[in-house]
Amino acid sequence: MSQDPRHIHLDPLGGISGDMFLAALLDAWPEAGDGLETAMRSAGLPDDWTFSVEATADGVLTGTRVAIRPPEAGKSRPTGAFRELRERLARAALTDAVKEGAIAILTQLATAEAAVHGVAIDAVHFHELADWDSIADVVGAAYLIDRLAPESWSTGPLPFGAGRVQTAHGPLPVPAPATAKLLAGFEVVADGIGGERVTP
C-alpha cells in the first residue's frame, strides 16, 4: 500500500451508500482493491453479475464509481433472510476478519430492522437489501476496512434527505425507519435537497 492510513474521515456531502463508500476508499487507495472482486465472488456474487471500478466525472470533479450490475435477463436473487445470509457468510471462503466484519455490518442492519418491525433478529427478512449488489457492498466494505485497517474513523454531518421512498412495505418517509435507527448518534444536516441520501 502506498499509504498506511491512521485515520480515515468521510465527508458525505452527497450522502452515503454501500457503493459510494467502496468508491471513496478505492479512489483514495486504488491498490486496496486487489482481491476485492474475489472476496465478493466468494460470498456468492454470481459470475453473470459484472463488477467494475470506473473513473467518472461530472464536469466539475473527477472520481471513482463502483458498479455491480446484474445480467440483462434471468437474474437470480439471494435469500433475504438475515439468518441464512449470516450462515452463508460464515461458510464463505473469506478471511476470518472479513467474515466477522461483514456479519457485523449485517447484524447492525438486522438489529435496526428488528426494532422497527417488532420481531426477533433471526426473523428479519431484508427486502431492499436482498440482492447480490447489496451483499457484495457489505462484503466489499468489510474487505476494505480490514485491508486499510485505520486506527480510527470519523464522518462529517450526514444529509438527512426528505420526501418518500417506495419500499416493499409501501411508501415510507425519508430517512426510512431502519435508516433513522442507524443514524442515531450521528450528526445530521438538512441541506434542503430531497430524496433518499443515506441508505442502510
Describe this structure in words.
The chain is an alpha/beta fold. Helices cover 37% and strands 18% of the residues. It is built from six helices and eight strands, in the order E-H-H-E-E-H-H-H-E-E-E-E-H-E. The strands form four sheets. A two-stranded parallel sheet has the order 1-4. A two-stranded antiparallel ribbon has the order 2-3. Strands 5-8 form a two-stranded parallel ribbon. Strand 6 and strand 7 form a beta hairpin. The longest helix is centred in the middle third of the chain and has 22 residues. 28% of the residues are buried. The model has no long low-confidence stretch (mean pLDDT 90).
From the alpha-carbon coordinates, what is the Rg to the nearest angstrom? Answer: 17 Å
Q: Within the largest sheet, what's the order of strands?
A: 1-4
The percent of residues in helical segments reads 25-40%
In DSSP terms (H or I, runs of 4 or more residues), the helix count works out at: 6
Average pLDDT works out at 90
Please outline the major beta sheet. Answer: 2 strands, parallel
* Order of secondary-structure elements: EHHEEHHHEEEEHE
How far apart the termini lie comes to 29 Å
What structural class results from the helix and strand content?
A: alpha/beta
Any idea what the shape is? globular
DSSP strand (E) fraction?
A: 15-25%
Number of strands: 8
Low-confidence stretches: none
